[in-house]
Amino acid sequence: MNTTALTELLFKMADDQLILGHRNSEWTGFGPLLEEDIAFSSMAQDKVGHSQALYELLHTLGQPSPDEVAFMRPAGQFHNCILVELPNGEYDFSLVRHFLYDTAELIRFELLRKSSFEPLAQLAHKIHGELRYHTLHANTWIKQLGTATEESISRLQHSLAFALPYALGIFERSPWEKELAADGIFEGEDVLQERWRTKVEEVISQTDLTLPAWNTITPVLGGRHGKHSEHLTPLLDEMGEVFRIDPTASW
Amino acid sequence: MKPTPVTSRDVYTWLEAVKDPEIPVLSLVDLGVITDVVVENTTVDIEMTPTFVGCPALDIMKLEITETLLQHGMTEVRIVVNFRDPWSSDKISEKGRRALKEFGLAPPPAGKVIADLDVLEHVSCPRCEGTNTTLKNVFGPTLCRSIHYCFDCQESFEQFKPL
Predict the structure, then answer these.
(1) Chain A closest-CA separation from residue B20 CA (Å)
(2) Sign (positive or negative) of CA dihedral A113, A119, A125, A128
(3) In this structure, how many other beta carbons lie within 10 angstroms of the beta carbon of residue A87?
(4) What is the structure's pLDDT at B154?
(5) Does A227 contact chain B (CB < 8 Å)?
(6) CB 3.0–4.6 Å: which of A52, A243, B66, B117 could bond A71 by disulfide?
(7) Given CB atoms, is A202 within the 8 Å cutoff of chain B?
(8) Residues A128-155: b if buried by 16+ CB within 10 A, e if exposed
(9) Could you report the per-residue pLDDT of A33-75, keeping only the tens digit for each?
(10) Can you tell me the mean pLDDT for B18-45?
């Protein structure tokens, strides 16, 4: 098994979960209604938990401990897509990002249930079950607000146009696509993207929202290779602030 | 007379006393998170799996398992957390399901279920057992609970989520 390829795959997945988990947690106390406050806070807890489990897998492959990789790396060593590091903005953007990202994640973990790397296949089976609640939440609100008022529809439409180029950055190819597929670890970003498009189209078609033609969207890439927006470093500074006061402290 | 050796069955019985810190009427055994127990003399190896991957109660559970077994004379307790035999809501025992209901939490629907709205929309109310209910939020006060409302009781209630 190609450990370098596997490590790269696990890092980008874990970093996505950690960074979006942190962004979701920023809704705690600020949700537009109590239920949504609870929903984003719960998804934050799930996602940070998923990142920890993935960092644990990386630890078994020789990487430093989960706390160390989560809190001590500079932005240039993070492999999350740029979509997840963008500030929460208004609720409409957070909701659209949640929908686009979690639709992809659900399919990614569905594919990984068949991974030849058994510990990942086991974890994927588990995480997949939990993510169904995240997509259920996203789809419910996209359908509801995507057919509600002129304002809700135009806000979602505007956020969709803004988020889609970043969403395509989720599927930025790894240098190891061939190796991952050949070893049966993961079918690859192209397979994932194709299935994601179908699912996104299916949900959006049940609303008054419209999708542009896919080939007219220019993907925003770079995140998978450590090239991030100006928003990641401030997020990491805040997230690791307490840990870095005393990295050896026992909690 | 030589003392009878401790068996895994003894350990399971002792662990009945360790409750889920978030649902204090439900033991870890009835919750279904203990997936294997191996005893050798006074050393116990336990394999467990969390209900939800991000469950924050896991560390407390491990601590309480260890303390309980040490109190019963075990000298070493080793706990491994993994996903070999992943938790699903079907792992909750019949006794556990009754305890949940008495606690006021609707037990998850039994059998393999798919988490779509249909399953969650008309959950049976733990008070009146009626299904004139609606789903308010798939997320609740803990990761494993959803929030519902019963039109007959005119009260909200929580359900242990199917997974």
Answers:
(1) 18
(2) negative
(3) 12
(4) 95
(5) no
(6) A243
(7) no
(8) bbbbbbbbbbbbebbbebbeeeeebbeb
(9) 998 999 999 999 999 999 999 999 999 999 999 999 999 999 9
(10) 94
Distance of CA B138 to the CA centre of its chain: 19
Write down the pLDDT at residue B163: 83
CA distance B115 to B138: 10
ipTM: 0.85
What was the pLDDT predicted at B77?
Answer: 97
AA letter at A39 = A
The pLDDT value recorded for residue B23 is 87
Mean pLDDT of A16-23: 98
Q: What is the pLDDT of residues A80-90, one digit of tens each?
A: 999 999 999 99
Tell me the pLDDT tens digit for each residue of B105-148.
999 887 655 555 566 788 889 999 999 999 888 898 888 889 99
- The region, left, alpha or beta by phi > 0 then psi within -120 to 50, assigned to residue B154 is left
CB under 8 Å to A87, separation ≥6 — which residues?
A23, A231
Instruction: Count A/B contacts: CB-CB distance under 8 Å.
Output: 71
Q: Which band of pLDDT confidence, cut at 50, 70 and 90, is reported for residue A250?
A: confident
Residues B83, A137: C-beta atoms closer than 8 Å: no
Is A126–B53 a contact, with Cβ atoms under 8 angstroms apart?
yes
Report the C-alpha gap between B68 and B48 in whole angstroms. Answer: 16
Distance in Å, alpha carbon of A38 to nearest chain B alpha carbon: 7
1-40 in chain A: CB under 8 A from chain B:
35, 38-39
Q: How many whole angstroms separate alpha carbon B139 and alpha carbon B158?
A: 10
- Which member of B52, B86, B138 has the closest CB to residue A49? B52
